[in-house]
Design a protein that fits this description.
Layout (H helix, E strand, L loop, with lengths): L2 E5 L14 H10 L6 H20 L4 H11 L2 E7 L8 E2 L1 H13 L19 H11 L3 H21 L10 H16 L3 H14 L14 H21 L15 H5 L7 E5 L24 H13 L9 E8 L1 H6 L16 H4 L3 H11 L10 H4 L2 H7 L2 E5 L1 H8 L10 E7 L4 E6 L14 H12 L5 H11 L7 H4 L22
Parallel strand pairs: 5-6
Antiparallel strand pairs: 1-4, 2-3, 5-7, 7-8
Helix pairs in contact: 1-7, 1-8, 2-4, 2-6, 2-18, 3-4, 4-5, 4-9, 5-6, 5-7, 5-9, 6-7, 7-8, 7-9, 8-9, 11-14, 14-16
């Protein structure tokens, strides 16, 4: 049975033993050699495919080009692979984690887990895979390490809210990635403990990266946490220590950045020897947009078919989306960000604007990772007119369902109340995204493979796409040499169509 640990700040005089510190409990979990169930391995494969799909689709986008140029300035042997380039070209693993992490995150199109806080657990995969390629780990070891990272990410996100205190969610990612790397390398509990502490200490940034005019740093932030995790493990392996206790200290993260000296968190972790199945609680995206918009995109697509009159703003007086606290205040009008209604806003900002997303999905009956965000699409006069009729409102019942621990009740959707200019009203709701495990069309292996093929089309040669898919689906059997092949090489000449920006390196 899982064990629930109470976590609270302590004074230095308390002398909190390591064995009672949260970072130690996480390190013990990472060092625990429990078997990995077959359904968990299958989901790990799905998420590696998912990451490769969205990374491949983003290869020519400016943040990814810049991150790749930085990584390629740090060649190293043995090293790790940079997505898009031949696996024969290897770079230092922390820089591969950086470049590949940006590629995975750029389109906001991979997996998610939402509870007390937000997360994209797939952000753990680039640093762990980079280290696996660098040290020569096999596929079974890679699968186990990713499983641990997901488990820790899910446990922390379930118990500890960062966003409430305007701390970015990468504060949970640094520790989970460091722990997963520790598992991959078979490190002892003490070394993993020190790496977790260092990663957490250096990953506590504010949420301004996801507020107002959102910049390209949104894609870089998780990659930074992955790079920090690799470097933290390296230092810990060399005998270097971390601030302690990192969570519970009187000048630590909880006391000063989160709920304060009186805080109490209940963090539930698997017991020793218990299977780590947290990855099965996570879910991916069918659409390239913030997760809390996924179900509402599906509802808007449905309304496009059933009520085509809604595509014309002259017929719409107002659309109010009744939804959860998080959706209203993060991607809705409750954020009070005028940029969410600005036709010239950045892609990163529009991807966090549910009024914009619903307007486009309602008019187009579809959502596309490029064309739906194109400047000419955002500035279309009838879209802007419709967009500005759309607001959100917090609904206590949707907030309750958002935080429910019952998988059958937990939901990230909402209810649309549409008032037409002729006085009629329409009310429609949706709880789960179509691709959610409980949705209308749940994602399984076939859907992950199709997503990869769609996004790799025109970017990688068909033979390269087929090679990757055949290899990754044999993950538990892969040798160290084959793990190096868990990357995707762009078709000849493609990466040369963009200019590498110059920097220090």
């Amino acid at each position: 049975m899982p064990i629930t640990h109470e976590v609270r700040p302590r004074t230095s005089a308390d002398g909190l033993p390591r064995s009672e510190q949260l970072a130690w409990k996480l390190a013990e979990l990472a060092a625990d050699p429990a078997p990995v169930p077959s359904d968990v391995v299958d989901m790990v494969i799905n998420r590696i495919i998912d990451n490769a799909a969205v990374a491949t689709a983003s290869l020519l986008r400016e943040p990814v080009v810049a991150a790749r140029a930085q990584a390629l300035a740090h060649p190293y042997s043995a090293g790790a692979c940079v997505v898009g380039r031949s696996p024969e070209l290897r770079v230092s693993p922390e820089w591969a984690a950086w470049a590949n992490g940006v590629a995975v995150r750029e389109l906001d199109y991979h997996d998610t887990f939402l509870a007390a806080d937000y997360s994209h657990p797939g952000d753990n995969i680039p640093p762990i895979l980079a280290v696996a390629q660098h040290v020569g780990a096999d596929g079974a070891s890679l699968a186990r390490a990713i499983t641990v990272a997901y488990e820790i990410q899910v446990s922390l996100v379930t118990a500890i809210s960062l966003h409430k205190h305007k701390i970015d969610h990468i504060a949970h990612l640094g520790p989970s990635a460091a722990a997963g790397i520790g598992t991959l390398l078979g490190l002892d509990t003490t070394t993993i403990f020190q790496a977790i502490g260092q990663a957490l200490h250096t990953c506590t940034a504010t949420r301004q990266s996801r507020k107002g005019q959102i910049s390209s740093w949104k894609a870089y932030a998780p990659a930074f946490a992955g790079k920090v995790a690799v470097e933290s493990v390296d230092r810990a392996m060399r005998g270097q220590s971390a601030p302690e206790p990192i969570y519970e200290g009187e000048d630590g993260v909880i006391a000063w950045l989160l709920d304060g000296p009186e805080a109490r968190y209940q963090v539930t972790l698997p017991a020793p020897g218990e299977a780590k199945t947290g990855i099965l609680r996570t879910y991916t995206k069918e659409h390239s947009a913030e997760y809390q918009s996924q179900a509402l995109i599906d509802l808007a697509r449905r309304l496009h078919r059933t009520h085509p009159e809604l595509t014309d703003p002259k017929n719409v007086a107002s659309i109010v989306i009744h939804t959860s606290h998080h959706t209203h205040y993060v991607i809705g009008s409750g954020a009070n960000d005028p940029q969410k209604y600005d036709p010239s806003a950045s892609r990163e900002t529009l991807d966090h604007s549910i009024p914009y997303i619903v307007a486009v999905a309602l008019q187009d009956g579809a959502w596309h990772h490029e064309t739906s965000y194109a400047p000419e699409r955002a500035r279309r006069a009838d879209t802007v007119e419709l967009w500005r009729t759309i607001t959100t409102a917090e609904d206590p019942e949707w907030t309750r369902r958002y935080h429910s621990e019952d998988p059958a009740e937990k939901a990230f959707g909402g209810r649309m109340k549409i008032t037409l200019t002729d006085g009629r009203t329409l009310t429609e709701e949706i709880a789960m995204a179509d691709a959610h495990p409980l949705g209308a069309r749940p994602f399984a292996r076939a859907q992950y493979v199709e997503k990869f093929r769609m996004l790799a089309d025109g970017v990688a040669e068909p033979e390269e796409a087929a090679r990757f898919l055949e290899l990754v689906q044999r993950l538990p059997e892969l040798s160290a040499e084959e793990v190096v092949g868990l990357t995707v090489t762009a078709r000849p000449g493609l990466l040369g169509t963009v200019r590498n920006p110059k920097g220090l390196f």
